[in-house]
Design goal:
Elements (H helix, E strand, L loop, with lengths): L4 E7 L2 H10 L3 E3 L7 E7 L2 E7 H5 L16 E5 L3 H13 L9 E2 L3 E7 L5 E7 L7
Length: about 130
């Protein structure tokens, strides 16, 4: 199957987006980072490519979605604990993120999230078990 994932997200201000994620403790892969793109390292072989809007337009004939007005994608990342979920949301809020909803506790799964500077939705979850079978 697949060995890596690169989620491509357009950004209005690449420098501001990089500073936002760096404030949360994330790093950028130097080989995938330049003036028009930044390879946000999410884990082993997991990347979000933050792209300037002009550069992103080169990959599609469709118009780019304004993520503050419409949902284009929900990026969901697993965390090792509820505390990690809460800590990342707190860091995101401190760095300027919107946090539009309260945490969700489903028993087997705890989640919370934020919207980055461009409105992209990042969900963070900690699963303690598989969901119940219906």
């Amino acid at each position: 199957m697949h060995r890596q994932i690169y989620v491509n997200l357009p950004c209005k201000d690449l420098a501001a987006s990089k500073a936002f994620f760096e404030a949360m403790g994330y790093q950028f892969h130097p080989q995938f980072t330049n003036d028009v793109a930044a390879g946000l390292v999410l884990g082993d072989n997991l990347y979000a490519m933050l792209l300037t809007e002009d550069f992103a337009r080169g990959f599609t004939a469709k118009p780019l979605v304004d993520a503050k007005a419409a949902t284009e994608v929900l990026v969901c990342l697993s965390c090792d604990s509820r505390e990690e979920v809460d800590a990342l949301v707190a860091k995101a809020r401190a760095a300027g993120a919107a946090v539009p909803r309260e945490p969700q506790d489903h028993g087997f799964m705890y989640g919370h999230g934020f919207e980055d500077l461009d409105g992209h939705i990042w969900e963070l979850v900690h699963m303690t078990a598989m969901p119940p079978q219906g």
